[in-house]
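Contributing: when you submit paired examples, paste them exactly as shown. First protein:
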Amino acid sequence: MSNHLSHYDGADPAHAEGNAAPETPESWAGLPREEFAFPGPLRDRLVAAILEGRKTSGTALLTEYLSAGETLPRAGDRSVLVDSGNRPVAVLERTAVRIARLADVDEAHVHAEGEGYEDVAAWRAAHEEFWDSPAYIEVLSDPTFRVDDDTLVVLDQFRVCERRPDTGA
């Protein structure tokens, strides 16, 4: 699912209530936030997959960056991964970034996303469902937007380079 959404600041109160934020390492100050999907169960699963090392790549729509006026990520960029309660849990470092047509996303990228899709078709169906959702269309501020084979996507690879001590090994 989309791992951009850095301009989305909302939190799901059901996931944030009563969760005091532990101390954030000073070295993380000033790094941009990295949010996967919207707060809730999907983000929780994606963050867990990243922390477990199963998820090492992500996909975002190029139009999301363009509509937000944000710079595209580059290899070497670092960001702070946040969970559904908007708590920082790890620092990610981009190791590779490329732009491709949606129709050209390959099995290697799908496998590195670590979400258990059987093939590219299953991966694409799940991603299209997310990108066509009313909540995502609202983020884009373009009610006419639709995904097709020629939709440009930002494919990135990353690694966890630091984790909060309280998130496990």
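Second protein:
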Amino acid sequence: MKTFVIGISGVTNGGKTTLAKNLQKHLPNCSVISQDDFFKPESEIETDTNGFLQYDVLEALNMEKMMSTISCWMESSRHSLVSTDSGSTEEIPILIIEGFLLFNYKPLDTLWNRSYFLTIPYEECKRRRRHKEHQLIESLSQHIRSSVIIYIAFCLLILV
């Protein structure tokens, strides 16, 4: 079966997921597979000499599982109308695969009908990263606060 596969890679926080999701909204029956969904459990992530978890390397990702997911999509993909180079329209399934290390994994190289590498200025990348980390910290703080409140309420029930 003929398929159309788009690879979107680039810098961390560069807009890959946002672009892929927006394309999916505008391309009927288009599917998106995100490399972020294939990180190994934290217990399997190596640390550097400073003790920081190394998420920015291929070894942190379960690429075999990702390839299996892609294969499953290829076998059971839905169809979209796609304009071909000759100007005609064909019904072809579309898959967008996005992730920061896609083009570092050679088995994917044969899949791409189109591939794009997104970049943004370094300062913008840092700003976006800080914003995401701030959101994560806020989310964790709320979770911890609610857990503490539940724990205190439980302790008060025991004392009563």
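If you have annotations for the second protein, write them as plain sentences, like these:
The chain has two domains: 4-119, 121-160.
The radius of gyration is 21 Å.
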